[in-house]
Sequence to fold (109 residues):
Amino acid sequence: MALKNDRYTYRVTWSDDDNEYVGLCAEFPSLSWLDESPEAALKGIRKVVEDVLKDMQKEGEAIPEPIASKKYSGKFMVRVPPQIHQKLAIQAAESGISLNRLVSSKLNT
Fold:
C-alpha cells in the first residue's frame, strides 16, 4: 500500500510560545513540527506524518482516512439552549426563511 501523506490536512501557524512556526496535521492532532520558516514547518510535519504512517503500516494499525476523502451528508445536530432556539426561530420567521437556512447562513459567515 502506498502511503498518501500528501492527502492529509496540514496547517502552518505561528507559535508565540515557541517563537517559531508550527506545522500541524488535523488527522494526527498529537503531532507537530517547529521550524524557523513556514515552508520548513510544513516540510517537517509532512515528514513526521510519513514516518508515523510507515510505522503504523508496519505494525498493522489502522491508517486514518484523510478528511478530504471522507463523504459528508451535510447533516449534523447541534444542541442549543431553548432561549437561543426561540430567538433563532423568531429571526427566521421575521426573515421569511426556514430555521435551517438561517442557521446555515450564520455558520457560513
